[in-house]
Specification:
With about 300 residues, the protein is an alpha/beta fold. It has nine helices and seven strands, in the order H-H-H-H-H-E-E-H-E-E-H-E-H-H-E-E. The chain has a seven-stranded mixed sheet, with helices on both faces. Helix 7 (about 210-220) packs across helix 9. The chain is globular, with a radius of gyration of 30 Å.
Length: about 300
C-alpha cells in the first residue's frame, strides 16, 4: 500500500508526522571495524604476479596505441612507399639499435616466448631466413640440429647476427651466414642433398615485396618428404577497427622500419601453396604462429577462424 493511500485512510493531516516517536534514546552504534585493503584482495605472490602482468599489458597496449595514433596524425614530408615497394634497406639504418628497440616490446607481447618455442622445434639441417640480428639463436637445441644456414638481406644485421652467434656458440662449426635475398639461390655447399629438414622464418612476410612467392620458394628448399616450415609472422587482425588503424599507419611504419604490418597473412599462406598444418593467432589476431610443410602451387587450405 502506498503512503498516499495510508494518509487518506487515516485522515491524517499532510503536515502530521506519521512516524512514531521514539520512547527511548537511540542506542549508539558500534564503531565500524576497519581493515586494510588487502583484506579484500589478499596479497599472495600469485596475485602480485597477475597484477604486475596486467599492468604491463595495459601499459604496452596503451603505448602501442599511442604510437599508432601519432603515426596517423603525423604528416609525411616525402612520398610514402606502396605495398609492392622493397623497404628492406631500412634495416641497414636500424640494425645498430634494433635489439635495444624491440626487446622490451617482444617480451611484453609474448613474442620472445614464441621465438623460443619455434626455435626449439628445429632439427636436422636448418635454414633460417630473415635472420635479422639472430634473436632466435639462443634458443636452438644444437643436440638436434645438424647444420645451420642463416640468410639476411641487410649486411649490417647479418654481421651483428654472426657476432652474436659466435659469442653464444663459439665451438659450433656447422654454421654459415649469407647476405642475400631469400629468393636468391644459395651456394650449393649450403644446401643439403635432400633439402632442409627445417625452414625457419620470423617476421619475414612483412619485409619482402613478394611474400607468397618467397614462402613458395622456401617450401621448394625444404625436404619434400620430411621438411617442415616454422613461421612467426604479424599482419592483419580479427577486428575491422584494428585493421583500419593498421592500414592508416602502415605506409609510415614501413617507410621508417621496413615492415608492412598490415598484410593479410592468411591469404599469403594460401597463395604460397604450402600445406598448413597448424595456425595459432594472438594479440587481437595480428600475431601468427604457423607450422607448415612443402606443398604444390595449387594453394593450401587454411581455416582462418580463431584457434
Amino acid at each position: 500500500m502506498s503512503k498516499a493511500r495510508a494518509s487518506r485512510s487515516a485522515k491524517a493531516l499532510p503536515y502530521k508526522n506519521l512516524h512514531p516517536k521514539l520512547t527511548s534514546p537511540p542506542q549508539q552504534l558500534e564503531k565500524p571495524i576497519t581493515r586494510p585493503l588487502h583484506f579484500l584482495f589478499p596479497r599472495s605472490p600469485h596475485h602480485k604476479g597477475i597484477y604486475v602482468a596486467s599492468g604491463i599489458a595495459v601499459y604496452a597496449f596503451t603505448a602501442y596505441g599511442f604510437y599508432l595514433y601519432t603515426n596517423l596524425l603525423a604528416e609525411p614530408d616525402h612520398p610514402l612507399p606502396s605495398q609492392d615497394t622493397d623497404v628492406a634497406d631500412r634495416y641497414h639504418i636500424t640494425a645498430k639499435n634494433f635489439d635495444a628497440n624491440v626487446s622490451s616490446t617482444e617480451n611484453i607481447w609474448g613474442i620472445t616466448r614464441l621465438r623460443r618455442r619455434l626455435a626449439e622445434q628445429a632439427k636436422g639441417d636448418v635454414l633460417e631466413v630473415s635472420v635479422g640480428t639472430c634473436r632466435n639463436g639462443v634458443y636452438y637445441d644444437l643436440e638436434k640440429v645438424k647444420s645451420l644456414a642463416f640468410v639476411g638481406q641487410s649486411g649490417a644485421m647479418v654481421e651483428i647476427a654472426r657476432k652474436k652467434w659466435n659469442s653464444l656458440h663459439p665451438e659450433y662449426e656447422h654454421c654459415s651466414f649469407h647476405i642475400q635475398s631469400a629468393m636468391d639461390p644459395l651456394p650449393a655447399s649450403a644446401i643439403p642433398e635432400k633439402g632442409f629438414t627445417t625452414v625457419v622464418q620470423t617476421m619475414g612476410i612483412c619485409s619482402t615485396p613478394t611474400p607468397a612467392a618467397t614462402l613458395a620458394h622456401l617450401g621448394n628448399l625444404a625436404d619434400p618428404n620430411d621438411g617442415k616450415l616454422l613461421l612467426l609472422e604479424h599482419g592483419r587482425s580479427y577486428y575491422s577497427w584494428m585493421n583500419w588503424i593498421l592500414d592508416k599507419a602502415a605506409a609510415k611504419h614501413a617507410d621508417k622500419h621496413g615492415c608492412w604490418f598490415n598484410r593479410d597473412v592468411g591469404m599469403i599462406l594460401e597463395e604460397s601453396g604450402l600445406v598448413i598444418e597448424k595456425v595459432e593467432r594472438s594479440q587481437f589476431g595480428t600475431l601468427w604462429f604457423v607450422e607448415a610443410r612443402p606443398g604444390d602451387r595449387r594453394g593450401g587450405k587454411l581455416v582462418q577462424g580463431k584457434k
